[in-house]
Amino acid sequence: MCGIIGYIGSRKASEVLISGLSHLEYRGYDSSGIALMHGNSVDVYKAQGKLVNLIEILKTKQDICDISHIGIGHIRWATHGLPTTVNAHPHTCNCKNLTLVHNGIIENYQELKEILQKEGCIFQSQTDTEVAAHLIAREYGKTNNLLKAMQSAVKQIKGAFAFCAIHKLEPDKIVVAKRNAPLVIGLGEGENFVASDIPAIIEYTKKAIYLSDNEVGVVEKNSIQIFDENDKLIINKVEYLPFEAVAISKMGYKHFMLKEIHEQSDVVRNVLSGKLLGINNEIKLEEFKLTPSEINKITRVQIIACGTSLHAGMVGKYIIEKFAKIPVDVEPSSEYIYRDTIADENTLVIGISQSGETADTITAIKQVKEKKSHIAIITNRADSTMARLADSLLPVNAGIEVSVAATKSYMAQLISLYLLSIFLMEQKFGPSAINDEVKTLKQELIELPSKIEALLENASNIQRVAKKYANYKDFIFIARGINYPSALEGALKLKEISYINATGYGAGELKHGPIAMLDENMPVLAILNTGIVYDKVLSNCEEAKARQAKLIGVTNYIADKDVRLFDDIITVPSGSDLISPAVNIVVLQLLAYYIAEYLGKDVDQPRNLAKSVTVE
């Protein structure tokens, strides 16, 4: 973990590497480093903390930066060893001939390390990556060929990796390898690039080759060769990158997170475009490959995801069961992969991931594919590993999301799940299933962008509430029914970027333990929408107020007699309970953002978090 960049060509390598790493900062990291090749020498520069610290070091090395046209770089999110300069990438072998950067986790690194130590290797760091550097160097000693050394080494490694290596004795190439971690080669004229994600190279090229698992590549300035797991040369498949450089600009906003919150109305329009053509028309999901008769054979749905995507899946459970009348299980991918799961050819498995590279979810998808289940993937990255595993791919078209805390991708996932739920119902039961409730939901989906824009234009009350509660150390979010996931997601957003200890609960569970924590120092945010659970949530608010908790209501309706109950009320546009998660979440995102901003936190790059979690 967490970001790789490589360059070979005629530009100053240091400038390309630093630019690429700066566009990968959104992934989250705690140290950085680059290696610059010049002649038959390689110089490694590393720094703890933010990229600016590395840039300061390079200012004193201008002579090397001016002459180097080959290099590799890395930003690290610590997995093995503390986030120190010694543990930062790149790593070298003892003779300093080979230099390596790596994303992923080497599962058998301890066994390999013991073998290498017995052979005389001396380790400087606590990382699993250094093991790979020594291993590849050992194989180079046998072959005197960097490609063959990499091919031999990766066959001895268990786990996930994206490797990018250079060698003093072969100063005209970069050798790369991939398994269960993303890696892309960007194509240029007289130059080529390597990266773990598109933003690192999008300002330089629009053409790329995506490596598949167990492939090893040789990248030179005028050529690229890729070999499969049997070491056979394969034909390169060139694809065009889907993003513009402007997508990674703040466009005048103070933070990417605020920009991405404001983009959500357009995101909804993009997801609905071409799929929801009117309230009387059936949903069109051409990407979904099951026929009506096959849909009728589905006996269960399993949704697997992590973090924010898991919360979207929990909303999906409510609406799929309501409309398609199919039982739905929602489970964290990290739990799904370590138990005996029941799935078969009549199971629809929905994997959800913003990046499409979430390691736990990828592993779960691979496991369940062996059981012949139909795999539908909802992701923001149609170029990702999960997308390539899909039987049905539902790209959410949210555009690149830079801030580590997911906002617009969550909204896009929600809307995709609404569309999928209605689609499954219509395919299963036919046009007669489009009743008044379905038509109302479709109309609300169409009107949702304008409701989001109205909230964003009148955010001053949210800012006021944020400032009032910013200095509290703990927070509780409560809701019931379809908004229970909203409470979980709202609490997650707050803890992610402000570091306030926020927890979400089903409101009915408050009295089964959490109520013991309530006093005047514990704010409780309650989500109330008109609907079947409104009165019940209101009763739970009474219970909280009786314990002197500060009470915030996020609601589309409060009776005059109940206003006295709340210390603060944030009003959202009216609408049905069914659509309310897509409205309420905007308030919760803004509240978390303004609290974190008021506290002076690094909103876009919160500590310890990574945007794309490519390790289990």
Could you characterize the architecture of this molecule?
- It is a single chain.
- The chain is α/β, with parallel strands linked by helices and 616 residues long.
- It folds into 3 domains: 2-248, Glutamine Phosphoribosylpyrophosphate, subunit 1, domain 1 (4-Layer Sandwich), CATH 3.60.20.10; 256-449, Rossmann fold; 460-598, Rossmann fold (3-Layer(aba) Sandwich), CATH 3.40.50.10490.
- The protein is 35% helix and 22% strand.
- The strands form 4 sheets. An 8-stranded antiparallel beta sheet has the order 3-2-4-1-10-9-11-15. The protein has a 7-stranded antiparallel beta sheet with strand order 5-6-7-8-12-13-14, with helices on one face. Strands 17-16-18-19-20 form a 5-stranded parallel beta sheet, sandwiched between helices.
- A hairpin with a 2-residue loop joins strand 2 and strand 3.
- Helix 4 crosses helix 5, helix 8 runs parallel beside helix 14 and helix 10 runs antiparallel to helix 17 (484-498).
- The protein is globular.
Entry keywords:
alpha/beta, 3 domains, 22% strand, Rossmann fold, 616 residues, globular, 8-stranded antiparallel beta sheet, 19 helices, Glutamine Phosphoribosylpyrophosphate, subunit 1, domain 1, 7-stranded antiparallel beta sheet
Q: Compute the gyration radius: what is it?
A: 26 Å
Low-confidence stretches: none
Number of domains: 3
Query: Would you tell me the structural class of the helices and strands?
Result: alpha/beta
Q: Which percent band covers the strand fraction?
A: 15-25%
Helix % is 25-40%
